[in-house]
Amino acid sequence: HGIQDFSFPPTAGFKTRGTFGPDEMFDFSRDSVLVPGTAIAFDVGYMDHGYCSDWGRTVYYGKAPELVKHGYDVLNHACVHLIEQIVPYKTNVKDCFDMIRDDVEKDGYLDYLRYKDERMLGHQIGTECHEHPMVNAQTDAILKPGMIFCSEPKMAFPGECYMRVEDMVLVTDTGAEFLTHFPRDLFEFSND
User: Fold this and answer.
1) Which of 16, 86, 159, 186 satisfies CB 3.0 to 4.6 Å to 176 for a cystine?
2) Reduced to 3 DSSP states, what percent helix, strand and coil does the chain have, rounded to the nearest 5?
3) What is the 8-class DSSP label of residue 95?
4) Integer Cα distance of 3 and 106 in angstroms
5) Omega before 133 cis (within 30°)?
6) Hey, which residues does 14 pair with through a beta bridge?
7) CA angle 174, 44, 59 (to 5 degrees)
């Protein structure tokens, strides 16, 4: 499709239900076999005309537990709601995580949301994959048209699933829009 290079080495992390604890969210075994009950967390980015992209999702092989499946819906809804709330020249970067957190908390999933203390949501992106200002509580910067950032809230369900929903977001003159176009209802899959 004409890409020049990757923004970073692509990753896919596999976690099979019941095979890991809360401290092993990022310790992906390379000898695992894909079996039902496995969550797969993707993180992919490529270069195009000198600019980076960054995208991530979790999909689930087999039927996900209701807690996890609903958590995916909650996280996606929070991401969409974040975009709807952005007002150029008014919305501060440091408030973006709180917008996600408020939605997740309203749906009863706050305990599963990661990086609450740092209020870390993501990063700006351009000619480098991770550019400043970072999208976290320490960054006091107003979102302006033309800015692009990656919103990547994550959830962890110990023993069940590590979940990511990452999108590239463009701030426009009138609000914001997703540059990532991946079906938000695509989560569970099987070989049936």
Assistant:
1) 86
2) 20, 30, 45
3) G
4) 40
5) yes
6) 40
7) 90
d(C-alpha 114, C-alpha 164), whole Å:
10
The tokens 């949501």 sit on which residue? 121
Torsion of CA 32, 43, 96, 188, to 10 degrees: -60
Q: What is the pTM of this model?
A: 0.91
Is residue 14 within 8 Å of 46, Cβ to Cβ? Answer: no
- Can you tell me the distance from the alpha carbon of 174 to that of 86, in angstroms, rounded to the nearest whole number? 9
Do 99 and 79 contact (CB within 8 A), yes or no? no
pLDDT block averages, 10 residues each, the chain of length 192: 86 83 61 85 92 94 96 97 98 96 97 93 93 91 96 93 94 97 92 74
CB-based contacts of 66, cutoff 8 Å, min separation 6: none
Extract the tokens encoding 188.
């569970």
Amino acid at position 94, single letter? K
Instruction: Give the pLDDT score at 28.
Output: 59
What per-residue confidence (pLDDT) applies to 2? 77
